[in-house]
Amino acid sequence: MGTLLHFKQLYFEAFDDCKPSFVVVLLKGYAIFCAVLLSMALYAFLYRAFTGFDF
What we know:
By secondary structure, the protein is mainly α. It has helices spanning 2-14, 21-51.
């Protein structure tokens, strides 16, 4: 749990004093988009690994 809180703190500190504000919104949206894509790739890999599909 402490690791997640540390990553959360780093995430919020990365955008402190960042101007202009639309760049901050764009970068936060991109970070969320990348996290979603990474989680989808991880899910697909685990699904294929546990269902026995050939790679």
